[in-house]
Specification:
CATH class: Mainly Alpha
Shape: elongated
Radius of gyration: 16 Å
Order of helices and strands: EHHHEHHH
Number of helices: 6
Strand order of the largest sheet: 1-2
Number of domains: 1
Protein name: DUF2383 domain-containing protein
Helix content: over 70%
Largest sheet: 2 strands, antiparallel
Strand content: under 5%
CATH topology: Ferritin
Organism: Thalassolituus marinus
Distance between the termini: 46 Å
CATH superfamily: Ferritin, core subunit, four-helix bundle
């Protein structure tokens, strides 16, 4: 296992959200199904919100925290988005939500891992807030998926 700074972890997470957003937007151009298009729009907004939030966190956190080292070896973005290989123009809303939740769960797990290892109170606060952010956005996605049946 290698080590990365908090800045590296935030950059990796932001990039992951940006790639997911781009994938959802590309798929919107290919689908002809209105419910799927609406869910793709919501998921792209979900990923954009998270990417923007990560950028804000990074600007607000002290340099001392950003320079902290943690045991984390970032995998490739392609590996983290491996479920996205299932994307096709006829994908169902349920399949889309499943992929989106896997991305959220991956990052929640990452943040919890770093949170468990960190000793500084500022880092603990940062990663605790990131876990809460991801979990609240995940719940919004689940609620949107449940309401998709009403569209």
């Amino acid at each position: 296992m290698s080590y990365s700074t908090v800045k590296d972890i935030l950059d990796y997470s932001r990039t992951l959200h940006e790639h997911a957003r781009n994938l959802y937007e590309q798929l919107r151009d290919q689908t002809q199904r209105e419910r799927v298009d609406m869910m793709l729009h919501l998921l792209a907004e979900h990923e954009n919100t998270l990417a923007t939030s990560l950028q804000s966190y990074q600007q607000d956190v002290s340099k001392k925290v950003l320079d902290e080292w943690h045991q984390f070896e970032p995998g490739s973005i392609a590996e983290a988005l491996s479920g996205c290989k299932a994307f096709h123009p006829d994908i169902s809303v349920d399949e889309l939500v499943s992929i989106a939740l896997k991305i959220d769960d991956y990052l929640i797990g990452l943040y919890k891992q770093v949170l468990a290892e960190t000793t500084s109170s500022e880092s603990r606060s940062l990663f605790s807030n990131l876990v809460q952010l991801e979990e609240s956005e995940k719940m919004r996605t689940v609620r949107a998926a449940m309401s998709a049946n009403d569209w």
